[in-house]
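Quick check before the chapter quiz. The format below is the same one you will see on the exam, so make sure you can read both the input and the output lines.
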Amino acid sequence: MEKLHIPVLTSEVLASLAPHPGEKYLDLTAGYGGHAEKILDVTQQYKNSYLVDRDEFAIEYLKNKFPPETNIIHQDFYNAMLQLLESGKTFDIILADFGVSSPQLDMENRGFSFKNDGPLDMRMDRSQEKTASDVVNKYSERELSEIFVKYGEEKSGRAKMLAKEIVHHRPFKTTKELADLILKKSKYSKTHPATKIFQAIRIEVNRELEQIEKTLPLLPKLLNKNGRLGIITFHSLEDRLVKNFFKEESAHGEESELEIITKKPITAETKELVINPRARSAKLRVAKRN
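Here is the expected output.
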């Protein structure tokens, strides 16, 4: 079970966030606790640290992995933040890793991956109603085309073509059925032609970018003075939101709540990519509370 998920940029996170004994830690996307384990090993501050995730499988794993006094919240990170703000909690270290965890991708019944045949689900929180099946089988041709462009960064012409084909051939029940259609209608490429489409559907189902947009402005309010904030993103849409937020913060000059530590994002070194290829698109940005 220890190899269930390999966290990305672990050494870079530790170096950048520089945890010290006694510091309070908030992990907004704790997943399977890879980063949290390393940080809490240093801080030893379990009672005043919080681990958040909206995936029930991750929550059960975290409860078994960490001491019982660790605060574990089964909630999406935005609503968890609102809850913590309302209760007046503040932290010395905050980490948010916006990537999809390996178990989510690898478990067929979660429906995240076109590499494994499974139901069209893609919900990070399986208590929510909307699934990938709802998007694929119920959205109009225009709505599908729009999310393929907006969230998948597909070219407009290709997005419209694929949306038309999907509407014509639906209903779809499994990820393989959808991926096979996209593959059939695509030219050869190094990456699977369904990659961008599946990303777009997943973002739509989980409202990922909306969550990030609402969360970013609230983060400084949860940080103590000299507290450190680390954010890991995995595609350009996420990173652009974080980059622009940091840029806006630094533009405030002396009135800025955050000091931007990373002028450019930190990326994985070659030795990590050999062990964990999924780290190739990871970017870490770090800021400090003034």
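If your answer matched, good. The first strand starts at residue 25 and ends at 27.
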